[in-house]
Write a structure and sequence with these properties.
It is built from twelve helices and 21 strands. By secondary structure, the chain is an alpha/beta fold. The strands form three sheets. Strands 1, 2, 6, 7, 8, 9, 15, 16, 17, 18 and 19 form an eleven-stranded mixed beta sheet that branches. Strands 3, 4, 11, 12, 13, 14, 20 and 21 form an eight-stranded mixed beta sheet that branches. Strands 5-10 form a two-stranded antiparallel sheet.
Length: 447
Amino acid sequence: MERKRRTVNVENRDRARCTPMLGANLARMDTSRSDVLILGGGVIGLACALYLRKAGASVRVLEQGTPGCGSSHGNCGTITPSHAAPLAKPGMMGMALRSMLRADAPLYINPRFDGPRLRWLLGFARHGNWRDFASAATARAAILQRSRRLLRDLMRDDGLDCEFAEQGLLYVYRTAKLQAADEHDHVAVLDRLGIEVERLRGEQLQAMEPALKPGVVGGLLHPGDAQLRPDRYVAELARRVVELGGVIETQAKVERFTTGQGRIAQVHSSRGSFQGDRVLLALGAWSPLLGRKLDLRLPMQPGKGYSLSYSRPARVPRHALVLREAAVCVTTWKSGYRLGSTMEFSGYAEGLNRTRLDALRRGAAESLHEPEGPELLEEWWGWRPMSVDEVPIIGPSTRWSNLSLATAHGMLGVSMSAATGELVAAQLAGTEPAIEPLPYAPARFGV
């Protein structure tokens, strides 16, 4: 049967001080003013808005496009404490540099010269040692595991309808060499962090997942992982924020700031000027671009990812999968089916890269009986906000007394969203946070 093709190119266009909030429960006469003004309506900004509203703060979100139109929209929607380990480790930079010769490599660095990207890559390489690896893995595990528990509570208590499922994530191997390497490295890290992982033989995996072609040699099951439909999750967060009295301004591109006496006095956007007792920068990959207007030098780069969304094939995987040799993530929902992943460092270059989309298709075809659905619904690209140490930047700014940040979540924004919202709400309310905030503090970068 000929596959129907409907392509939607979701463009990424312009779209340690901490004091408790004052007057969080008081009605506002000035409708342009809020207790907290949130810059960015992606998954992180909206999760922060929800937890802040639950804490009693008035919130207004300024979103340059529509809620979740950036990297929140087209990722694979996996909730993954299993991804606690960062990319940077000894030997990784050499592999990344060799990828310059392969435009379809799962991790690809565009060889075009780009000064900011080169500086970021050099910083990234400096973190490729075992001490920094262990430190980043511990910080990432803490926020991932906390967020995983909170997400279950959000689904139940707030009635979020986004196809949340808790059956775990499977790594699938077709070569014994890669499986042995992961069992030596990946499993050892998860064991140290207290994150459950189960080893599976090839025949066990084949019985669990008849959608896989014969030839798998084994797998790893991460039973604590989960999945949801990310675009619906973001829409549901936005719905709850508005239901609880928050305000979301769409098509509100932040253009400039008025500052004075070490504070941000006003935020000027394409939809008007706004004030907040506190301002929260949660703009994902756009954070360093806007940060320059505030004299902030955020050590971040966009890591470009891609996905293909389809109507459901007849034979679909029962679990979310990572096809390890091809580094392709496969997610199935009642409402659809998605292939995704890849990491491309090309700066702020926009647009789809056919070579990388084709690599997703080939990788899925190597392992799945039905790698694509009957109808192609969307081809997508998005920028992930990558910090130089692969730990998110969350907490009060050292430069501006009423500015906080919640950004640089890399590939794990959906996974870390709930715990980020909870942490920001606790910091701004002056209450004890559930996780230690120091590893995520902007102060480590002097911002």
